[in-house]
Amino acid sequence: MRVALHTKVRADRIAEYEAAHRKVPAELTTAIRAAGATSWTIWRSGTDLFHLVECEDYGKMLAELEKLPVNIAWQARMTQLLDVVHDYSGEGAEASLPVVWELP
After folding, report:
1. 75-88: per-residue pLDDT in tens?
2. Where are the domains of the chain?
3. What class is the 2-84 domain?
4. What is residue 93's DSSP assignment?
5. Which terminus of the chain is more solvent-facing, meaning fewer CB atoms within 10 Å of its CB: N or C?
């Protein structure tokens, strides 16, 4: 499944956000993969962040990650850097940007 997300980084924290993502803890990336993600890409346009997550089951992935101390610490750090934090409480399509068009 592919899930597209939108968040916004604080204008005064862009450099810090990008620096944090150059050093994502190996323990976290291992946990994300173990939870079913095969790919996660983030693009930035100004303060807008667009995420594309490819995973087996997005809701299951979030449920597995939410209790892990490394993810809890990472999310706390990201909350300090973001203006708009995506509501990750939904599952699957309900938690993502709706598909408008796809090249057939």
Report:
1. 999 999 999 877 55
2. 2-84
3. alpha beta
4. G
5. C
